[in-house]
Amino acid sequence: MKQRVITAAVLLAVLAVVVWQIYTPLFIAVIAFLSAVAANEIMKCAKVTNKFILIFGTAMGAVIPFTSSESIMMPWIIGEKWSRLISLLPGMTLPVIIIIAFFLAMIFDFEHTKFEDVAVSIVASIAVPYGFSMFGVLRDFYGFKSQLGVYLIFYALITALGTDTGAQLGGMAFGKHKMSPRISPKKTVEGAVCGVATSFALNAIAMALYSKLAYTPLPKELITVLLVAEPFISFLSMMGDLSASVLKRNFDVKDFGKIFPGHGGVMDRFDSSLFSIPLTYCVVMIINYAVK
């Protein structure tokens, strides 16, 4: 318990620094680091032994978040120059390059590298980093230094963390009916309901505080849609947690990693957020499209 508390305190201190520097490249550097570690954790848990795939996949996990926004390197590099650089690999070019590189690595080391290694590595080195990239996309969704973008990040994180915390506490207090005993025996239906309710309440409070303190008010249509979508995003963030639990069972490991003593690895801490962050992006994209 002491170790968990110390680690949590350190993480909160790091979070405070990242929030303080959210409009500098330090923000995306931290996201890129977490993305690379998460990609590496999954491949190692899957016992991928091909060194090229491990190194190249981990490197791509760090590179992809830097392509999330043209203003992601501001104020060090102006958006126009960074946009010109990342446009050298437009659209799906980078994922295609990664996939082809992995298959070539399988061909050259076919005796020890199986298709399953390539499949897992594709998910780890493409899907997971693009999930982390959504932090940068949301930050700059309404423009560089827009308070609305930062609020969207906190909305998604509050949804994931509120759901996890509420479900754990609610399950301990009221849990009777197992939600998915073969995947995660401790999760209960009552806990899940408490998790959704907790995250909704926390986001409602956060909205009220933001509306009073922020310079840029939340549009009424955005408030309505985010509140309506919140329970669905909350539920699906739980599915992200369960998805990670399934992977750990398949890999026969307790935690994805040990980077956070007492808390496991990056994937253990961000499994829910990797669902809530992209889903929040989808919601605001739909709103933006509908308004236009």
Provide the structure class.
Answer: mainly alpha
Main β-sheet description: 2 strands, antiparallel
What's the mean pLDDT score?
A: 93
What ranges have pLDDT less than 50 throughout 5 or more consecutive residues?
none
Distance between the termini: 51 Å
Number of helices: 11
Strand content: under 5%
How many beta strands in the DSSP annotation? 2
Oligomer: single chain
Helix content: over 70%
| Widest sheet, order of strands | 1-2
Tally of separate domains: 2
Give the SSE string: HHHHHHHEEHHHH
Shape: globular
Radius of gyration: 20 Å
Gist of the model:
This protein is mostly helical.
Name the descriptors.
11 helices, 2 domains, single chain, 72% helix, mainly alpha
Task: Report what the structure shows.
The chain has two domains: 1-145, no CATH class; 146-292, no CATH class. It has a two-stranded antiparallel ribbon with strand order 1-2. The mean pLDDT is 93. The protein is built from eleven helices and two strands, in the order H-H-H-H-H-H-H-E-E-H-H-H-H. Strand 1 and strand 2 (184-188) form a beta hairpin. Helices cover 72% and strands 3% of the residues. The protein is globular, with a radius of gyration of 20 Å. The longest helix is centred in the C-terminal third of the chain and has 32 residues, at 220-251. With 292 residues, the chain is an all-alpha fold. Helix 3 runs parallel beside helix 6 (115-139), helix 6 (115-139) crosses helix 7 (147-174) and helix 7 packs antiparallel against helix 8 (189-213). It has helices at residues 2-20, 25-45, 51-63, 79-86, 93-108, 115-139, 147-174, 189-213, 220-251, 266-270, 273-291, and strands spanning 178-180, 184-188.
